[in-house]
Give the backbone structure.
Amino acid sequence: MDFKVNSKQLEKLLTKIIPAVPTRTPMTILENFLLEIKSGLLTIYATDMEISLKSSINIVSEKDIKIVVPARMLYETVRSFKDTSIDFTISENKKLILKTSTGEYSFSYIDAKEFPEIPSFPQQENDVDINEFNISGNDLKDAFELTAFAMSKEEMRPAMTGTLISFNEEGIRFVATDGHRLVNMLKTGHQTNINEQYIVPERAITVLLKILDDKEVKVFVNKTHISFVLSDIELISRLIGQKYPDYQSVIPVENEFALKINTKDLLSSIKRMMIFSPSNSRRVKFSINANLVEISAEDVDSGSAGKESIICEYSGDQIDIGFNSSYVSDVLSHLNYEEVYFKLHSSTKAVIINPDKNKENENLMMLLMPVRLNN
Amino acid sequence: MTKTIFHLDLDAFFVSVERILDPSLEGKPVIVGADPSKGRGVISACSYEARKYGLHSAMPINQAYKLCPFGIYLSGNHRDYGRFSHSVKKILEKYAPVIEQASIDEFYMDFTGCSKIYGNLFQFAGTLQKEIWDKLSLPCSIGIGSTRTIAKICSDFNKPKGITYILPGMEKEFLKRLPAEKLPGIGKVTIKNLNAKGFYTLGDIAAFPEDYFITAFGKHGSDLWRKANGEGSGFLNPPAKRKSISKERTYAEDVLDKNEIERTLFDLAGKVCQVLREKNWLTSTVGIKLRYSDFNTLTRAKTIKPTDDDKIIYEETLKLFRNAFTRRVAVRLIGIHLSNFSEFNEQEVLFEDENIVRKKMLRAVTKIRNKYGYSSLKIGTN
């Protein structure tokens, strides 16, 4: 026997790492874990070349070991055990053998040098390019949950497929957009002296949202990679090395008409109108009058239509404006506030959507582009 | 319930329009169709004066020229015809609850139960005819019957400027004496077949059992027998959504020069895309039709990402053409065919890139051409 681990402890470790194992990849080596034991510390790595995860536990082991083992097979096996102790043996013929009180299982392993190199932070000594900051797990989770839905799914403009993180004296700003809607959120109260901005890819955010807890997160970032160090796991991701579109220039300054409306009422109305909206444009029409907004949708192809009215507070000229209903629904379902403001200028210009008052350490603004109404 | 179907047919429509545009054509044999000097094509319409010489629509133009060398031959302008046809439709829409435009000069209308509003429908047909004449100077004939077929036969029964109303129950009596070829849908082949079997009038057909026609002509035979007996559908088809857009060019002289055909494709691509954008549609299937001078015809099509851009359509059709044009034989006809439409998404965008700018440019081009005509603007190659 080379080392010994409790099955539940190992399962917990593997569960954290498995999200980084790609399901389909031309590089079959990536379907494996890199398993490393170094002076009593067992570390598991996985990567899909875009992101990598690593996590460690302390074990009792005499030897230092570094091998590559089939990820899903090991994970499924360990997961199926009840609480028991597993003995691991590395045999001469390239087999990893697991023994429990009742059974024996063996996997072929591959030499560690076959596994692609995983970047690491901040071990590179005196690397001047590395920036670092701390943020609470809750804040980071909040920020990514609120912005992630607006990221683009189209590969045409790679920069927009990620979320922008930028820094200023007020705090950390998170921005995501697909060109039709934009979320711009400032988390205040974080002092950094960083002067750069970075684009974190969608994959890193999806995995992060699965593993983030309320503990403090240490973030290291250089020109090409970002590392999120959680209490028991580290996620390293490539950054998107593209120029982010100039989002500040599209934030309108002249939106003088303000509509204040109950978020839940509007959302439930939008969800109903979605049923009647045309399947390609998903268009709904807002006819906004003083104190009343009529929301209507019509699908000529199926010959169906619906409309309803909601009481609101509105200061401005009567206006008819169209939106993609699923975008409105996305925006509203991410706004956990009783009332929201729509600030408008005309039926073809960007609309600003704000909560009625911001949370303590947060400043949130969304933009939504209308869909043209062709009457 | 017995239906009351009107069939309104504009008399010698293209010729009537030409006469409005050029009154000097009045009383002369006018033939609209191809240019006889080019020796190709057929008559689209001819005036009643020309019909005296034995001319009729669909007659090859060189044959017509032999019969009536003094006729006035016009190539015709479909834009004008479309405009007048539209005006007629506007008048009819004021009165008819259900309307089906069967072609540029033919309309079916369902006036079932409308005598309570318009009084005697025979007289009402006269008022309708007069209004179209007074407002547009276009003569028309109206047929009224209980089915589409009866109404259509009626409108043809007393041309020009006729009104024929077959009262319900009298259909069989009316059809009995008519020659079989008066029935719409009976062509040269069927009539030859019928005559060979001894059927000359619709009465001959009606008198025989239906089973005989089913055995002899299949499903078509059953339709034939029922129509000859005055039965048939009185339902009008609401205007169907357009399923395809195509433009073709038949060359006056067959063309072997690849470059010239490609230039034609460029031209046609611009035109189909103009129609596409006017309708606010995107197409996902683009195809070409290629006819060699020996009438061998082939079609090729391809599915693409939804678009309304001339450039993409041109490039795709060019590829299809280059792959398809393998014979060293001159080309008689080339055409572009678009189908599989989706609505243009009017979503506004935050960040303008080249694609968006180009889309906006194309929208503007469409608007200008819509107002000042297609040739008012030309898109160059960079």
Residues 258-278 of chain B form the longest helix (21 residues). Chain B touches chain A at residues 280, 342-343, 345-351, 353 (CB under 8 Å). Chain B has three domains: 1-169, 176-228, 244-375.
